[in-house]
Design brief:
159 residues; alpha/beta; YbaK protein; 3-stranded antiparallel β-sheet; 6 helices; globular
């Protein structure tokens, strides 16, 4: 089994890249957006999810508000491609491409550079919480910083 990165690896990456963010670690294990929002005392819309898709064999990261559902058709319309060549990434692929397990994937600092899409509603927030490298860590960062760092494409990708 492939060994993944941890929140300590993310902290080091943030420091090396000089990215202004707060890594909240040593949290109780959270497995849902609702749990993360409750632990941090924020609305679910302020907890972002990183969903990894495969489009024609290439990974695509979609960053969306936690209270919304990412819609395949919106993503396909934006990136192009055929529905039968588009799917959700498997957990092993997520770990391979990002270095982090499903549920802890941060918006950047991945093992591989990937095309990134950001739902425009996230970009409207001053700060959002993203995966922090494990199920016991959350990364608080301005979506504008995430967009600049990842070169994320803005659009509507979720309802």
């Amino acid at each position: 089994m492939q060994e993944g990165r941890t929140e300590q690896d993310l902290r080091a990456w943030l420091r090396d890249q000089k990215i202004e963010a707060t890594l909240h670690d040593h949290l109780p294990s959270v497995h849902t957006v609702a749990e993360a929002a409750e632990v941090m005392g924020v609305p679910e819309a302020a907890v972002a999810k990183s969903v990894i898709f495969v489009n024609d064999g290439e990974p695509v990261v979609v960053l969306a508000p936690g209270d919304a559902k990412v819609r395949d058709r919106y993503v396909i319309d934006h990136v192009g491609g055929a529905r039968n060549r588009f799917r959700l990434a498997r957990p092993a692929e997520v770990l391979e491409w990002t270095g982090y397990p499903v549920g802890g994937v941060p918006p950047f600092g991945h093992t591989r550079t990937m095309r990134t899409l950001m739902d425009e509603r996230l970009f409207a927030l001053d700060k959002a919480l993203f995966g922090g490298g494990s199920d016991a860590a959350l990364l608080e960062v301005a979506p504008a910083v995430v967009r600049e760092t990842t070169r994320a494409e803005l659009g509507r990708f979720a309802d």
